[in-house]
Specification:
Shape: globular
Helix content: 25-40%
Number of domains: 4
CATH topology of the largest domain: Immunoglobulin-like
CATH superfamily of the largest domain: tricorn interacting facor f3 domain
Number of helices: 18
Radius of gyration: 24 Å
Structural class: alpha+beta
Length: 596
């Protein structure tokens, strides 16, 4: 249990007693916006332990009993603004299971209850959860630390016209009729960190994509989603070639309503995905490659604390590039690597420059919400480190070590120190090689070390030239864009001068239909240009974009850009007042600090 002792974002004392299994029995009350029922916790404890400490936030604890129904004493500590409330339960001798009777708050931060009008179908309500980083404690009373892995099972009762899905094996795919609705049952026998326990309830349909893959979405969306993710089965096979057998059974994708705050969430067996990836041309499927890669780097081997977050995201971003290379070729992967580097350098500048503490991979989060560390730096700086190691030792040696690393730590949570020990013990044994790589500088120092490889793409070099030609006075119609990928469009827009004339903006918009783009990544980049240059004709598209999806990656920069402009502040406040009720708490927690 040593890997969890220093988790500063949990009240748990796992060295004394820790949760090994959670059995949920809950009813979804859409009128009250509550989950109501019980959580039965299986506990392992030291022989002299007489209590267990759990994490909760805004839960209404009704009573706690043993399996026979005997009431147990408990104490709810005063609330901490970041961590919530410690729940200490007093354990009788010899007892290893407790049953907590509780209900969630209507404002539980992990849960978003959507009205029918906020869904694609417009007829039925919807519920989904988002537990990462420390929000599972707002809907399940357990030890909410990534280092305390737990199996789980669930019985969920929902209205009879809705369907429940979870990040677990479905024991009753079609549900069973009960007096007050339908019940769905689930189980996951592989231990996971609690942030990966996830639920969604709604008018959800399914389309199979292969023997172990498929797509869930609302009825009006499922056909489009199934077409977009045509290559799911191929992706799983490509990932297995790099990382070894897929150990979770099925790999399905659930496309959520637009308010989902992330691009994707790697919940086991069931990736939650934003509808903003539905570009219509499969051009944004790298997001699914990323979430699939988490089935190994993140779900199979997990960061033990949130300071080790880069072990999830940096490793996964590296693997995403490898999957894209295997499926779509080196050129496509190279374009992603170039864009990731641009994103990294922009993010380093945003958080304060190369000496800023938040550019350190093993980030210090003492006294902070772990979401503060969820920038793109752990993703792209971490991936750059793995790319450097691969290129330095050779792909064959790197891949052999990587498969072994995943196997040695399968279904475990590890720290950065443990990762380095494995790397040094099994791959980087030569002191001269260690000196060349400068591992400690990469992980414990700020900025991007100067031995980082510089990614390059011939295709993007041609795009840069096109941007220069346009900036020099050429008409947009002279640029040959017919077969451009999303990555090429992104790089073109990012390579344009910061300041453009109204005539140039109008030419770009009219020629390429940028304000009407269905591709969210391209539209996002265009809207940033429009704000920077106060291009009024794009403002309706901006307002629609900000009020029709809740992905934090898009929302934060756009609101920041608006708030930085005198003319933009009133518009930002007006749009946010309208849109805030549509956003998930993960997004509003960030945006409330920006739009003031």
């Amino acid at each position: 249990m040593s890997t969890t002792d220093s988790d500063i974002h949990s009240f748990a004392k796992p060295e004394e007693a820790h949760v090994t299994h959670v059995a949920l029995d809950l009813r979804a009350d859409f009128d009250a916006k509550r989950l109501i029922g019980t959580a039965q916790l299986r506990i392992e404890r030291r022989s002299d332990a007489r209590q267990i400490v759990l994490d909760t936030r805004d839960l209404e604890i009704e009573q706690i009993t043993d399996l026979s129904g005997q009431k147990l004493g408990f104490i709810l500590a005063p609330p901490d603004p970041i961590l919530g409330r410690a729940l200490t339960v007093f354990l009788p001798e010899g007892n290893s299971d407790i049953v907590i009777h509780y209900q969630t708050s209507p404002t539980a931060e992990a849960l978003q209850w959507l009205e029918p009008s906020q869904t694609a179908g417009k007829k039925r309500p919807y519920l989904f959860s988002q537990g990462q980083a420390i929000l599972t404690r707002t809907w399940i009373p357990t030890q909410d630390s990534p280092g305390i892995r737990q199996t789980y099972s669930a019985r969920i009762v929902v209205p009879s016209d809705l369907r429940a899905v979870m990040s677990a094996e479905q024991l009753t795919p079609d549900g069973k009729p009960v007096e007050d609705g339908r019940t769905f049952e689930f189980r996951l026998t592989n231990p996971i960190p609690p942030y990966l326990i996830a639920i969604a309830v709604g008018d959800i349909s399914f389309r199979s994509k292969g023997p172990r893959t498929g797509v869930y979405a609302e009825g009006p969306v499922v056909g489009t989603a199934a077409n977009e993710f045509e290559d799911l089965e191929k992706m799983v096979s490509a990932a297995e070639a790099l990382m070894g057998p897929y150990q979770w059974g099925r790999y399905d994708v659930l496309v959520l309503p637009p308010s989902f705050p992330f691009g994707g969430m790697e919940n086991p067996r069931l990736t939650f995905a934003t509808p903003t990836v539905l570009a219509g041309d499969r051009s944004l499927v790298s997001l699914v490659a990323h979430e699939l890669a988490h089935s190994w780097s993140g779900n199979l081997v997990t960061n033990a604390t949130w300071s080790d977050f880069w072990l999830n995201e940096g490793v996964t971003t590296y693997v995403e590039s490898r999957i894209m290379e295997a499926l779509y070729g080196r050129d496509r992967a190279a374009m992603l690597d170039v864009l990731n580097r641009t994103e990294l350098m922009n993010e380093i500048a945003r958080v304060g420059g190369s000496s800023a503490a938040d550019t350190i991979l093993h980030i210090d989060l003492k006294g902070r919400n772990p979401d503060d560390g969820a920038t793109t730096i752990p993703y792209n700086k971490g991936a750059a480190l793995l790319k450097l190691i691969e290129q330095t030792v050779g792909r064959q040696s790197f891949d052999a070590w990587f498969k072994g690393y995943l196997d040695r730590h399968a279904f475990q949570s590890i720290t950065t120190a443990m990762f380095l020990a494995d790397l040094r013990g099994n791959l980087i044994r030569d002191p001269e090689l260690e000196k060349k790589l400068r591992l400690d500088e990469w992980i414990y120092k700020p900025g991007l070390p100067d031995n980082a490889l510089t990614p390059a793409s011939d295709a993007l070099a041609r795009v840069e030239q096109a941007a220069k030609t346009f900036a020099g006075g050429a008409k947009a119609s002279t640029i040959a864009t017919k077969n451009w990928t999303t990555q090429e469009w992104q790089h073109f827009l990012e390579s344009l001068p910061k300041t453009l004339t109204p005539e140039q903006l109008a030419d770009l918009d009219k020629t390429f239909g940028l304000s009407k783009r269905g591709n969210s990544e391209v539209l996002f980049d265009w809207l940033r240009i429009a704000i920077r240059n106060h291009y009024e004709p794009a403002m309706p598209a901006l307002e629609h974009f900000l009020t029709s999806q809740g992905r934090r990656k898009f929302l934060r920069p756009l609101y920041e850009d608006l708030m930085a402009a005198d003319w933009g502040k009133p518009l930002a406040k007006k749009i946010y007042a309208e849109a805030r009720p549509l956003y998930h708490a993960v997004s509003t927690g960030t945006l409330d600090q920006i739009v003031r």
